[in-house]
Fold:
Amino acid sequence: MSSSTNRPVYRIACIPGDGIGPEVIGAGIKVLEKLAHTLDTFDLQFHHFDWSSSYYKQHGHYIPKGGLEDLKTHDAIFFGAVGDPDVPDHISLWGLRLGLVQPLQQYANLRPTRILRGTIPPLASLQTHPENLDWLIIRENTEGEYAGQGGRTHIAQPWEVATEVAIFTRQGVSRLMKFAFQEAQKRRRKKLCVVTKSNAQRSGLVLWDEVAAEMAQEFPDVQWEKMLVDAMTTRMVLHPETLDTIVATNLHADILSDLAASLAGSIGIAPTSNLDPTRRHPSMFEPIHGSAFDLVGKGSANPVGTFWTGAEMLRWVGEGRAAGLLMEAVENVTERGVRTVDLGGEKGTEEVTGEVCGEIGKLVGKGVDRGGRRGREALEAGDY
Structure:
């Protein structure tokens, strides 16, 4: 953050990436600029990086030399998606997204999930009681099953061998578990469910369980439990009201958070924060829906996940009031039935974006106290 006056200026690195990434990031920037201009209390400076699969096909790499150092001069990273039909998924993922997450030590991945007003979830029980789904899923983001350890030998031979090694370090598990307990402590219900598969994975995930039990001693006000990942999928569907904060490994939380987004109505509304809680490096914020090449150019991509992602980014840099106002505007729009096809509506990306921009103007015109106060209280409680 920099400022030559009394108002803060936040430098945001934008990496739209592949597929619908440029479309939704463009929509997100438009809404964030509208918000900053209307509130007139802070400024956002967006700097664009053309790192994508197209860039990879031209240069043979996703991140140019010195790219990480460039990113470190920013307050946050606004990321779209990576993935291209012409590039194997493991190359694009490791070349860009994981190529940023690991060296920037963004070890805590946060995925809040709740049912936005006006959104119709697929389960009848949640249609009548949408408040029963209000979760924060915390994913270990730099090691575990996606540590990148392993290899292949005797390729294409009948005796070919491939290994994929999950890495769990006491340091890595401890820092993530402490963060999870801290986040659970901030929320109203102060509940934490530690997801594991330690009955079958008897080394790394037994360590995971042991560290959780040790960390719990430092947070006596947090009610915690552990559950096997397969049982968790059933509980999420049948008894969502019993859950609040959930922490799981890289792979398990990756899967569970997609299920959570679907239960809330659509993967198109779900945000992700890739955080370095030490704040030594910039954190990265992205919608979780991926590149979705089947939607490219149709103007139908849901931008709500990107708007929510933008709100999470504002919260991280210290603009909680603005984040709350943005989510108030988004939900006022969805409540009026302005929704994209994935949410049962018929509006396009531009129409939803325009409506949210208009709603921001209306809220500020009425006075930001209602949206700002509601947003700030919700953010402090961990509800956004």
User: Anything to note?
Assistant: Residues 368-384 have pLDDT under 50 and may be disordered.
